[in-house]
């Protein structure tokens, strides 16, 4: 089998694989990523155990929320990507959560001061004004977010050299939170090593994590994908670095 044929088989397999939900089990044995040191799921479980009404924004397939051992009396999640909505509803039955389909960048469809806890893991965009609005006085917002320049090595392997990142800086999140009337009580950063053992893992990741290469399709980027396949074959797993930050804020 030629290297090109091998690449095409791997690419075709990854292009046909489902990417619904927010689980990454398809990458088992093919890609790895370090976990942030703060243990987001554990922090969420701790906050949920002390909450009466909680909201998970951009829940994906509900994977993190479904693992909460002691959910609050009222537990709600939002999701904007239609394929994920039904996945999340099935996943979150076990914790009694309702899932609300929302429009991308639309307002949160809840009354003022509805929740004493709002959480969000890897939100597409945090609407700080809306978050502050739906929080009760004394309520908490806890979020693990994508940091500036995340997976930059992978983006540049497909797109070529890029200018310095201008978005997703933790300092910008702090300023936006404070401008919305929230008080930031915790901010942590982490750089996490990620590896991709074959080009199929790269393709599946780029299909799922859409901001890495905006507008990614296999046909559009077939040439750099083949180049990266040869690089992996000759040099071993491709290494990139994910940027994450944890931010916790309260409404006074």
Main sheet record: 8 strands, mixed
* CATH T-level fold name: Rossmann fold
Shape estimate: globular
Distance between the termini: 64 Å
Mean pLDDT: 95
DSSP strand count: 8
Q: In the CATH classification, which architecture applies? A: 3-Layer(aba) Sandwich
- Total domains: 1
Q: What this model shows, in words?
A:
The structure is a single chain. The protein has a single domain, classed as 3-Layer(aba) Sandwich (Rossmann fold), CATH 3.40.50. The protein has eight helices and eight strands; from the N terminus they run αβαββαββαβααβααβ. The protein has helices at 3-16, 40-49, 82-91, 128-134, 152-159, 170-179, 199-208, 222-235, and strands spanning 31-33, 53-56, 74-79, 98-101, 115-121, 135-146, 183-196, 238-250. The protein has an eight-stranded mixed sheet with strand order 1-7-8-6-5-2-3-4, sandwiched between helices. Helix 1 (3-16) crosses helix 8 (222-235). It is globular and about 60 Å long. The mean pLDDT is 95.
Q: Concise description?
A:
This is Methyltransferase domain-containing protein. With 252 residues, the protein is an alpha/beta fold.
Key traits:
Rossmann fold, alpha/beta, 252 residues, single chain, SAM-dependent_MTases_sf
Question: Which helices and strands, and how do they pair?
Answer:
Elements: H1 3-16, E1 31-33, H2 40-49, E2 53-56, E3 74-79, H3 82-91, E4 98-101, E5 115-121, H4 128-134, E6 135-146, H5 152-159, H6 170-179, E7 183-196, H7 199-208, H8 222-235, E8 238-250
Parallel strand pairs: 2-3, 2-5, 3-4, 5-6
Antiparallel strand pairs: 1-7, 6-8, 7-8
Helix pairs in contact: 1-7, 1-8
Keywords: Methyltransferase, Transferase
Protein name: Methyltransferase domain-containing protein
Domain Methyltransferase type: 55-142
């Amino acid at each position: 089998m030629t290297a090109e044929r091998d690449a095409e088989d791997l690419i075709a397999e990854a292009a046909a694989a489902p990417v619904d939900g927010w689980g990454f089990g398809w990458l088992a044995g093919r890609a790895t990523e370090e976990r942030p040191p703060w243990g987001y799921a554990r922090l969420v479980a701790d906050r949920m155990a002390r909450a009466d009404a909680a909201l998970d924004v951009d829940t994906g397939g509900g994977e993190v929320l479904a693992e909460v051992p002691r959910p609050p009396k009222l537990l709600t999640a939002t999701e904007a990507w239609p394929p994920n909505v039904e996945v999340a509803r099935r996943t979150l039955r076990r914790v009694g959560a309702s899932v609300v389909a929302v429009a991308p960048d639309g307002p949160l469809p809840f009354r003022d001061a509805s929740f004493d806890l709002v959480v969000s893991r890897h939100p597409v965009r945090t609407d700080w004004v809306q978050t502050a609005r739906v929080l009760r006085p004394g309520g908490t917002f806890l979020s693990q977010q994508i940091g500036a320049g995340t997976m930059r090595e992978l983006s540049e392997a497909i797109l070529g050299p890029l200018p310095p990142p201008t978005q997703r800086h933790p300092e910008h999140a702090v300023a936006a939170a404070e401008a919305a009337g929230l008080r930031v009580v915790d901010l942590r950063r982490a750089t996490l090593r990620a590896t991709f053992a074959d080009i199929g893992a790269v393709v599946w990741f780029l299909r799922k994590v859409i901001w890495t290469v905006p507008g990614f399709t296999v046909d559009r980027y077939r040439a750099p994908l083949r180049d990266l396949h040869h690089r992996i074959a000759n040099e071993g797993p491709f290494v990139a670095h994910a940027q994450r930050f944890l931010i916790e804020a309260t409404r006074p």
